[in-house]
Amino acid sequence: MKLRKLRRSWVMGGLAIVAAGASVQASAQSSVTIYGALDNALVYTNNQGGLHNLYLRTGNLAASKIGFKGAEDLGGGSQAIFTLENGFDINTGAMSSANTLFNRQSFVGLTNNAYGTVTTGRQYTPYFLYVGAVGPTSVLTGATGAHPGDVDGLDTTVRISNSVTYSTPVFGGAQVSALYGFGETAGSVSTGNTYSLAVKYDVGAWNYALGYQRLKNGSGPTNAWNSTASGSFSTSAVNNGYVSSDNVQMIAGAMRYTIDKWMVGANYANAQYKPGAGSLFAQKATFQTLGLITTYQLTPQVALAGGYSYTFEKAANGIDDPAKYHQIALEQTYSFSKRSAIYFLEAYQLARGKTLGKAGTGSIVNAVAVVGDSQNGSPSSGRNQSVLMVGFRHLF
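The structure corresponding to this sequence follows.
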């Protein structure tokens, strides 16, 4: 009897050890990471609706956010992955989007070393992820370095709900990615849908990217952009006359060359706002942008960046002197560590010509300056606008 009890104890102990080992192994094969950024700056703007202003603004060098991402090893080079990310205002604690917890990203999917990655949920487009990474906002933060009003969507202002993305593995430095966003309107598959395609190629010191995205308006009033669409775009005094578009199409390309401490780059974007039945404008509106960027790593702690962009609207909708925007942006960053940095941002924009006001055709107005996308809700009352910032950013 004692021998039987002893054997039973050995068996139970062995099972416990095996179970513990399996638990440790499962834990080692999966991981969840909490990450984010805290960013705040003191801002001076010389003209917001005709008045100067001094205020605190969150998310300038990096968007203030908290996120969760995880991966589980499924074997055979495959992983299950997910990302949940929420943006917030550090000065008030409010979420960036009311009633939307994970407004920035929320997706789940599978990735395989040989076959690529499929994800579903709310996601950035390949257009932004590939071209934006080589374009201006990754080195000249979108707050002051995005093209005026982010009219071409190269900053983090376009996110697609109800979307599926497929990205190939990297082959010889090249990778392709495609996204489709479902409009989910019964009886009309195309209403509110989005699609995007992009390719990038990295070879030696060179980086190239080319991308396309098209957003279709959702069901609802035809004189506005409807929330039923799978995606939306940034609005400002630059494109307020065209928010009743039937669809918006953006094409952009960017390139960079890095040698030692220097990086130089160039980018081009074409944004087209197309009318439909009921739109408040009659002819397609086209904005083109040419941009130049450069960075220099002065010391291991000090990084310098600068850029120039020229955005111009095509004559249409009764406008014979279309809008033109010249913008210069500068950035200086001192890193105390890999996570913490103090930064200085300076930008100036000069606007010329005319564009459409919110009422659309028949409301031709003077173009006004809108630096980057930090002033989308507070444009200048006139032709120029200057923005100065000093801030602190901490990553975790």
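Confidence is low (pLDDT under 50) at residues 1-28.
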